[in-house]
Specification:
Blueprint lengths: L1 E2 L2 E2 L9 E8 L4 E4 L3 E2 L4 H14 L3 E2 L5 E6 L5 E7 L1 H11 L7
Antiparallel strand pairs: 1-2, 3-4, 3-5, 3-7, 6-8, 7-8
Length: 102
Amino acid sequence: MTYLGKKRTYDESVAIGLCPVRVDSKRNRFVYYSTVTWNHRASLNVDMWLRRLDAFGFLLAKCNDLALDVVDEDGSILETFGLTPAGFEYLRRNLRFRREPG
């Protein structure tokens, strides 16, 4: 599958979740949000959300202040996509992720 006109760089069968990240440039740190994972057909769910974001124009080729990490079972980052603010809010509204403490 391709996103943003590029082939994905990871083995899609190991992707189990998505983790939104925001750069807090005032405090010079990353703000992590809860990782959304799926137990049943996880890689298909990850792929579906990435296709939706790409179709709506919410994915960016380069990361700015908002990013979306594709993660595997161990929490390792497989690939990172930039997100528009509208894409971040779209995910927040639909996946209901929360800000991680810290």
